[in-house]
Amino acid sequence: MPRGLKARESRLAFWMLLPTFSIVIAIVILPVVANFWIAFKPIQLGDLRPPKPAVRESVRAQPKAAGEVLEVRYRVQNRTDNPITWVRIEDALAPGLTPAELPEVCRVQNARIFCELPEGLEPKQTVNLTLRFTAGPAYFEAGAPYPRDTRPVVESKAPNPILARPFTLDNFRAVLTDPDFWPMLKVTLAYTIFGTLLSILLGLIAAQLLSPPFAGRQVLRGLFLFPYVAPVIAVAFTWVFLLDPFAGTINALLLKYGFVHDPIPFLSQRYWPVHFFGMTIQVPLALTMVILFEGWRYFPFAFLFILARLQAIPSEIYEAARVDGAGIWATFRYVTLPQVVGILATLFLLRFIWTFNKFDDIFLLTGGAAGTETITIKVYDYAFARANLGQGAAQAVILFAILALFLVVYFRYAPKGEV
Amino acid sequence: MGAAVALVVGVASALASLGSTSLLIVLWGGVKTAFPLDAALVLGLALGALAWLLARRGQLGPLPMTLAGAGLTLAWTLAAGGDPYQLGLGALWSLLAPLAAGGLAGLATAYGLREVRLDHPDGEVWELVGLHLLRGAAFLVFVFMVVFPFWAMIAASLKPRAGFLADPANLGLPLHVFSEGFWPGLQKMFVGYREVLVTFHFLRYIGNTAFVATSTTVITLALAVLGAYAVARLEFRGRAVMERAILLTYMFPAIVLAIPLYTVFTQLGLRDNLFGLIVVYLAQTLPVALYMLRSYFETIPASLEEAGLIDGCSRFEVIWRITLPLALPALASVGLYVFMIAWNEFLFAFMFLDTPELFTLSRGMVGLNSQEVPRQFLMAGAVIVTVPIMVLFFWFEKYLVGGLTAGGVKG
Questions:
Q1: What is the pTM of this model?
Q2: pLDDT, tens digit, for every residue of B9-24?
Q3: Is residue B214 located within the same domain as residue B139?
Q4: Which of A67, A291, B248, B276 is deepest in the core (most CB within 10 A)?
Q5: Full residue range of the structural domain in which residue B22 is found
Q6: What's the Cα-to-Cα distance from B225 to each of A123, A286, B319, B332, B335, rounded to whole Å?
Q7: Nearest to A328 among B127, B147, B242 (CB)
Q8: Alpha helices per DSSP H over B345-374
């Protein structure tokens, strides 16, 4: 290709990719950087609103006749925990009022009052500005306007806490020394591993079922995709409702058929004792339920890929196996499985990462209660339930570090060209 | 083929059919009697014997077996006084339910013995039959597992609280409301939907969600077509790196983006705003859309476009006149997939939207999930959120399946 044409193609490609790149950089890359930044700063949810002073105007003395005094007080308060560096208050001054006693920071100009606090306000600091005016006849001719009828205009400057606060490792210290930290990691791993395996196993079985052609296969394939396509909020709430210990259908059925004597609080109890050969095993109940939900909701994903792979296997291989006298199990073990093992590995890596990242499902089912708190729920819990953005971001950084490890494994071992 | 095989298959199919039918009856109108084990046994033995006889004459097929099963249960139902399940739903339903169960049992028996030939060695026959039975059972389990929650969602959305507290195991439709006449009955049945749509403003939320999902789809498609074309057709440095980067972004956890986006969008005033939401959805869908479209563009022969270029078309004319018409199926797949993501999205809608006028359906659903709102309304809301995406999905299933598999789509 001639050189000039190549340069032109390059330039064209740049412009065509620019919008996508800008959006991804603005909404994905920069936020990740910002997350690292926030993780090293002691920032609360409340710090997001820029600190503003509260100004209250009160009339301490109202003149009845000319020559009397009008006294106005502005109470300027910084109610936040952040410093305000500069405040200016501007208010209208009624005609016929001459300044009698003004604070140093206030002046009157063109029938307007200006007060300026060049030092600003410390956190929780209050400043009272008392202004005294002598009322002349013009004031009463104008109908003795009440000073509070005109509202003061307040302007202020304050450093953004996100930029101004010092860097610190406190957030990481708090997150790593949290007594729930290691149990939370264990729950996350259990949820990720078993949820992934279950969804792939169910997907494999479903794909096996629908792989030979028969009437109604298209309809069933559509049906099997339902759990995956339906909005998570609708299916999660439906399962919560079905599993409810008091009004839920599943418990009612179990009770009716006599399988249990008391309703099982599926999503709100940490452990359920199972008696087995005289031993009592404490099964993590709520965690098992969210893993089952994971398997139920995401098996269609594995199903689709495995089915596509199965249908691509040439039928001659099966013929050959039959001629060689291979039984059903042998056919599956030595013909089918080697053909799908690549896609199974890819699916495992992919689903493993996505399950690890999953937030909505557990959040809607249990809210992270009863031993189902995974690392994503913990991020939300710190940042929004406890309103500590810094600690939430620190937890997110830890999540990100673990994820990076998985991604290295993914790009190292994922078979090329499978997905 | 041994008679024993036929009898075992017959009994197993009859047990499965009657079992699953009574489970469906539980959901339909509530259980009144225990599972009819004796009836299943007799029916199964009879079907097995019949199957063996038919097989010997080479006439074993689904139709005669289905008819035989239905006929046998019809006889039993009439002998048992017309309502063996004690459904109390009237003569029609009381007859239809066991009839369907019997027909199913006959069909299942025929299916279980399919491909089994009389001259097979015994071991192979058992293996084949065992596999058929396992497959049949797995089918029942899967279909039930997938349909049950959605059926429950619909049934619960039609039933008032009092009905549930009285009999929570009953997921039947409250057909008794029609005793007051068709029109008032219908109104009573769908009261939850009216409340949710009007009183809880779901009509507005449908509009908001449709706006957000449609805008996301249109913008994503437009930008992804440009990007995908550049990656597929044009030469430039860093192309390989870029492909990696695209793959990487759809492995990013939403929750890691949530804190910084919340922080920055709050400070910029973009947070409680549908456009802010659309931008976030764009970032979530663009990389995948670009990846999927690129794969498709690469399957279109470049020679077609080169002909256009030689004829004096500009690049954009080539894309518009040649590439896009050829890529229509891929555009449909990607568009549907993007629409689905945007319609279903929960986390960012939940965190970003505070003003009720701006709520999307996912965000609005959270408001229904409270002690003061009856479950019936919550489930009506769930149906309203689900139905549009399901209708769309069934309409374009072929494309959606293509979309879901094409890029290894996130979920």
A1: 0.85
A2: 888 887 877 777 777 6
A3: no
A4: A291
A5: 3-149
A6: 52, 44, 9, 12, 11
A7: B127
A8: 347-352, 361-368
